[in-house]
Amino acid sequence: MSDWDIGVFASIDAGLGVKLEVASDLQIPTIQLHAPHRSTRTAEQAEKFIAKLEALNIQLTAVFGGFDGESYADIPTVERTVGLVPIETRAARLQEMREISDFARLLGCEVVALHLGFVPHDTNSASYQEIIEVTRQLCDHATRNDQSVHLETGQETADGLLAFLTNVQRNNLFINFDPANMILYGTGEPIEALKKVGKYVRSVHCKDATWSDQPGVTWGREVALGEGQVNFEAYLTTLREIGYRGPLTIEREIPQEPERQKTEIGNASRLLTDLRKKIIGK
Ligand code: MG
């Protein structure tokens, strides 16, 4: 891989990302994969998928976990339903995340990622300690598969996330930085946040959004890359400053409008390629 290869968030079966063929049509050389459903996570399917990646000359850079029952309808619903935080589903989802890690290993992928959910703010509370513990268990499983775990940003402020990473005390725990999520969730200016957490950033999303008029209470709005309030030139310049050289993975989750999704990802790829040329000269 070379520095800042363009990437796109993709799915095998029905999922939020685009099909591999779309990445191939748009000549996008890397993907992050939304983990397929349990029934599809077999050795046979993994082999088929690897063959397809090879045929299309696409490199897989991360497998993203997601769970049945998660909903991003509004911020309180995210709090109640997303990731390993909700107590009712925690044990089952930890187990499923372990299985996703095993499937990623079958695919030869060294990174698993997820939205952990809203970590409790009181760092002395029992529930905070429980989230620390479940994250350790996931990290330790990933270690056995020679993998890192990347936490998607958005639900925490940069300071909250830094404290959490420090408290977990695992050397394979890193960040998948998503600038649009900082805006959508109202958790902080993305460029400032990126500077703060920079040393932990090992993968990124390129997604755009506009701020809510009530940040942190209601959602901002996700928009096509270049049309929102993430300053992408400042974003890439900051990525260079923190020494980030991994892929620039475009995330545009409007699977209900596949034509528009493809067009907007193509536009995003061109915009990022132009900025890359300007900022690192290739
Ligand atoms: Mg994201």
What does this structure look like?
By secondary structure, the protein is α/β, with parallel strands linked by helices. The protein has a single domain (6-280), classed as Divalent-metal-dependent TIM barrel enzymes (TIM Barrel), CATH 3.20.20.150. It is 44% helix and 16% strand. The strands form two sheets. An eight-stranded parallel beta barrel has the order 1-2-3-4-5-6-7-10. The chain has a two-stranded antiparallel sheet with strand order 8-9. Helix 6 runs parallel beside helix 8 and helix 8 packs parallel to helix 9 (232-241). The radius of gyration is 18 Å and the shape is globular. The mean pLDDT is 96. Bound molecules: magnesium ion. Magnesium ion (MG) binds at residues 152, 178, 181, 205, 207, 251. Magnesium ion binds at residues 152, 178, 181, 205, 207, 251.
Overview features:
eight-stranded parallel beta barrel, TIM Barrel, 282 residues, two-stranded antiparallel ribbon, alpha/beta, binds magnesium ion
Quick overview:
The protein is of the alpha/beta class.
Number of helices: 10
Helix content: 40-55%
Spatial ordering of strands, largest sheet: 1-2-3-4-5-6-7-10
CATH topology assignment: TIM Barrel
Q: Any idea what the shape is? A: globular
CATH class annotation:
Alpha Beta
Outline the low-pLDDT stretches.
none
Largest sheet: 8 strands, parallel, barrel
The averaged pLDDT comes out at: 96
CATH superfamily: Divalent-metal-dependent TIM barrel enzymes
- Mind telling me the C-alpha Rg? 18 Å
What is the strand and helix layout of this fold?
Elements: E1 6-11, H1 20-25, E2 30-34, H2 43-56, E3 59-64, H3 75-81, H4 87-106, E4 111-114, H5 126-144, E5 148-152, H6 158-168, E6 173-177, H7 179-185, H8 190-197, E7 201-206, E8 208-210, E9 221-223, H9 232-241, E10 248-250, H10 258-280
Parallel strand pairs: 1-2, 1-10, 2-3, 3-4, 4-5, 5-6, 6-7, 7-10
Antiparallel strand pairs: 8-9
